[in-house]
């Protein structure tokens, strides 16, 4: 995920929460919210398959 605002404002030791489906990044420490584009479906499939090779194997089934 890319979010210029988050990359500028989040500091070491800030506690964050990331929702990959919506693209919302919450900085719990500073009580701030940032918006980025959510991951596309093919990236979510790779993550949920525990890697690219597993994703490819699963797609051939």
List key phrases describing it.
alpha+beta; single chain; 3 helices; 3 strands; 61 residues
Notes on the protein architecture:
The chain is of the alpha+beta class and 61 residues long. It has a domain at 13-49. The chain is built from 3 helices and 3 strands, in the order αβββαα. The chain has helices at residues 4-9, 41-48, 52-59, and strands at residues 16-19, 24-27, 32-35. The protein has a 3-stranded antiparallel β-sheet, with no helix packed on it. The mean pLDDT is 92.
Strand and helix order: HEEEHH
Radius of gyration over alpha carbons?
15 Å
Major sheet: arrangement of strands: 1-2-3
Enumerate the spans where pLDDT stays under 50 for 5 or more consecutive residues: none
Q: Please tell me the overall pLDDT.
A: 92
What is the tally of helical segments?
Answer: 3
Query: What is the helical fraction, as a range of percent?
Result: 25-40%
Most strands sheet? 3 strands, antiparallel
What is the tally of beta strands? 3
In whole angstroms, the N-to-C terminal distance is: 29 Å
Structural class: alpha+beta
Q: Which outline best applies?
A: elongated
Beta-strand percentage range: 15-25%
Quick description:
The protein contains 3 helices and 3 strands, in the order αβββαα. The radius of gyration is 15 Å and the shape is elongated.
Secondary structure topology:
Blueprint: H1 4-9, E1 16-19, E2 24-27, E3 32-35, H2 41-48, H3 52-59
Helix pairs in contact: 2-3
